[in-house]
Amino acid sequence: MRLKDKVALITGAGMGMGRAASLLFAREGARIAVLDINAEAGEETAALVRSDGGEAAFFRCDVGVEENVKKSVADAVTAFGKLNILFNNAGVLWRERDFEVTRTDERIWDRVMGINLKGPVFVCKYGIPELIRQGGGSVITTSSISALLGYKRAQDAYTASKGALISLSRSIAVVYADKKVRSNIIHPGFVDTPMQKELSEEAKQGIAQLVPLRRLAQPLDIAYCALFLASDESSYITGAEIVVDGGLTISGA
Ligand SMILES: NC(=O)c1ccc[n+]([C@@H]2O[C@H](COP(=O)([O-])OP(=O)(O)OC[C@H]3O[C@@H](n4cnc5c(N)ncnc54)[C@H](O)[C@@H]3O)[C@@H](O)[C@H]2O)c1
């Protein structure tokens, strides 16, 4: 029960890592506010948590729309009485529209930045005051190893949005430290989630061969890192970045 008596708000919790984190956090004692733009997926995650013996409520929310986030945070507080953990997990990767800068449309830049960067901004804007009301809390934000590397096949809006999250998280860590609000970043490598559904099995095997640990991550690999950052076990860690990529970014091979 590493999150006993805590309430966690998780964005993009309808599938992938957000769903895995919802189930894991609930097993560790947290009550979960499941936020997602996809109502069917979000309701399903909340139902899965409940059938596993946990407590969860779904709130439909497009994190790129400030009013949606404001309302969802307020609704989550009404439902659970408080917030202790904000997990900024929602993100979009649009391989078929997001390319290198010379080929990427302004509308794609705006929407990707709106979801991937402004989403966490809005969650923090309305969520951090709730953490402060509880005497502090933990903000966890999912960036990506894409923020640390360049790729020949670029997705520059995605990459830039994820890079900006590093600076944002550090600033939050410093500004709210005296209120006992911690802020940390996770950089997943390749994770086998619906986001990677366009990758063929062959492509996934090819990527796995480049990873020193010789496999893609599973959603739980990332959720366990988030669990540690959410829990009081990491109470002296703030402004940090944790790479969870099976060694991909440190491999010279
Ligand atoms: N899968 C990977 O290989 C990988 C690697 C590095 C980083 N990441 C990051 O990890 C996070 C989770 O990724 P995933 O692979 O689980 O993704 P996913 O696509 O499997 O799931 C993302 C969830 O976010 C929701 N979502 C999308 N847009 C939203 C919006 N505007 N508002 C609210 N919810 C929205 C989707 O409905 C979905 O339920 C993302 O931030 C992603 O960028 C993923």
Detailed description of the structure:
This protein is an alpha/beta fold. The chain has one domain: NAD(P)-binding Rossmann-like Domain (Rossmann fold), CATH 3.40.50. It contains seven helices and seven strands; from the N terminus they run βαβαβαβαβαβααβ. Strands 3-2-1-4-5-6-7 form a seven-stranded parallel sheet, with helices on both faces. Helix 1 runs parallel beside helix 2 and helix 3 runs parallel beside helix 4. The model has no long low-confidence stretch (mean pLDDT 98). The structure holds nicotinamide-adenine-dinucleotide.
Low-pLDDT runs of 5+ residues are: none
Main β-sheet, spatial strand arrangement: 3-2-1-4-5-6-7
How much beta, percentage-wise? 15-25%
Shape: globular
> Which series of helices and strands comes N to C?
EHEHEHEHEHEHHE
Which key phrases capture this entry?
binds nicotinamide-adenine-dinucleotide; 253 residues; alpha/beta; 15% strand; 43% helix; single chain; 7-stranded parallel beta sheet; Rossmann fold; 7 helices
Describe how the helices and strands are arranged:
Elements: E1 7-11, H1 16-27, E2 31-36, H2 39-51, E3 56-60, H3 66-80, E4 85-88, H4 106-133, E5 137-142, H5 156-175, E6 181-188, H6 201-210, H7 219-230, E7 241-244
Parallel strand pairs: 1-2, 1-4, 2-3, 4-5, 5-6, 6-7
This protein binds nicotinamide-adenine-dinucleotide.
